[in-house]
Write a structure and sequence with these properties.
Strand content: 15-25%
Structural class: alpha/beta
Number of helices: 6
Distance between the termini: 58 Å
C-alpha cells in the first residue's frame, strides 16, 4: 500500500514539474493578434478573408453549430442589436456541412445584416487554433485587430459593446 501512495505522489510531482515547463501564453498568443482567416461563405461560396476587413474595424468571430439552441439564442441577440453592431464586422463559423450552414443563414435572415458573414470552418482549422469546445464561442477583436475579449456560451450584446470601449 505504501508503494502505491509513494508512486502516486511521485507521479503527481512529476506531472506538476512538466506542467510548469509549458507556457500558457503559447496558446493565447496564437490568436491575441487576429490570425489569417480565409473561408467560403454563404449564400454563394464566395471567399471571405481577413484581407476583406476594413482597417480600424472591430471584428467578432462566433463559432456555432446550426442545431445548437444556444447558438440560435446568440444569433437572435445579434439581430436584435443590428443598429448597435453596425460598425462591427461579424463572422459566424461552423464545421457543419455547407448546406446546413446555408439553411441557418436563410432561416435567421442574416442577409439583413450586411456586416455579418457566415462561413464554413473546413476541417475545424480555426476551431483548433482557438481550441473551441463549446458553442457558441465568441472572440472579439478591437480596431487594432487585438483580442479584446473571449466569451464562451451566450453573451449579451451589451457585454460585447462594453468590451470594445
Amino acid at each position: 500500500m505504501k508503494k502505491y501512495i509513494i508512486l502516486s505522489l511521485l507521479s503527481m510531482f512529476t506531472n506538476g514539474l512538466f506542467a510548469q515547463n509549458q507556457n500558457p501564453n503559447d496558446y493565447v498568443n496564437k490568436f491575441v493578434s487576429l490570425p489569417y482567416i480565409s473561408v467560403h461563405t454563404v449564400p454563394d461560396s464566395s471567399i471571405f478573408s481577413t484581407k476583406n476587413l476594413a482597417k480600424n474595424t472591430p471584428f467578432l468571430i462566433m463559432f456555432f453549430s446550426p442545431d445548437c439552441d444556444h447558438c440560435h439564442k446568440q444569433t437572435n441577440e445579434l439581430l436584435a442589436y443590428k443598429k448597435e453592431l453596425k460598425g462591427v464586422k461579424i463572422l459566424l463559423l461552423s464545421v457543419a456541412p455547407y448546406q446546413e450552414i446555408k439553411k441557418f443563414y436563410k432561416e435567421f435572415g442574416l442577409a439583413s445584416m450586411s456586416n455579418i458573414k457566415v462561413g464554413q470552418d473546413v476541417n475545424f482549422k480555426l476551431g483548433i487554433t482557438y481550441k473551441v469546445s463549446t458553442y457558441p464561442s465568441l472572440f472579439l477583436y478591437d480596431r487594432r485587430a487585438i483580442l479584446a475579449k473571449a466569451f464562451v456560451g451566450n453573451i449579451g450584446v451589451p457585454a460585447i459593446l462594453d468590451a470594445l470601449k
